[in-house]
Write a structure and sequence with these properties.
The chain has two domains: 14-77, Arc Repressor Mutant, subunit A (Orthogonal Bundle); 86-129. Helix content is 55%, strand content 6%. The chain has helices at residues 14-28, 40-47, 51-63, 90-105, 110-129, and strands at 67-70, 74-77. A two-stranded antiparallel ribbon has the order 1-2. Strand 1 (67-70) and strand 2 (74-77) form a beta hairpin.
Length: 130
């Protein structure tokens, strides 16, 4: 089961952070069709947020046909977002872990690593367009 976390410094609303985390888990194969999302009550207890925030996120995911709510039972994944198996990502994960270790050895903190990655990602995307 997925465990949500919130980053108050991200500038992204809590409900969108939950939606993004579910989408990411679906892309990576961490959530599969039939898996149950945490109950609203559990998310509220773990994150200390308003239940309406969780409900809004789950409704958004329902609107995208990624999950379906079963009254009295819970919210379940109805489809994934990946065509490749999780095993196909293993070599890339290994390389990324090595890169992360090098970044930390170079003295970068998490925010700096994320900024460097996102800047490089965006620059590469722009170069691919050009």
């Amino acid at each position: 089961m997925i465990e949500f976390h919130l980053d108050g410094r991200s500038g992204v609303s809590p409900y969108l952070q939950i939606v993004q985390q579910v989408r990411q888990a679906l892309r990576l194969g961490l959530l599969r069709e039939g898996d149950q999302l945490p109950t609203v009550k559990d998310v509220v207890a773990n994150l200390a947020i308003n239940p309406n925030t969780v409900l809004k996120a789950y409704r958004e995911l329902e609107h995208e046909d990624l999950v379906a709510a079963r009254p009295g039972v819970g919210t379940f994944v109805t489809r994934t977002l990946t065509d490749a198996s999780l095993a196909a990502h293993t070599p890339l994960r290994r390389e990324l872990r090595v890169w992360l270790a090098k970044a930390r050895l170079a003295g970068l903190d998490d925010e700096s690593i994320e900024a460097l990655f996102m800047n490089t990602f965006r620059t590469a995307a722009q170069e691919d367009i050009a």
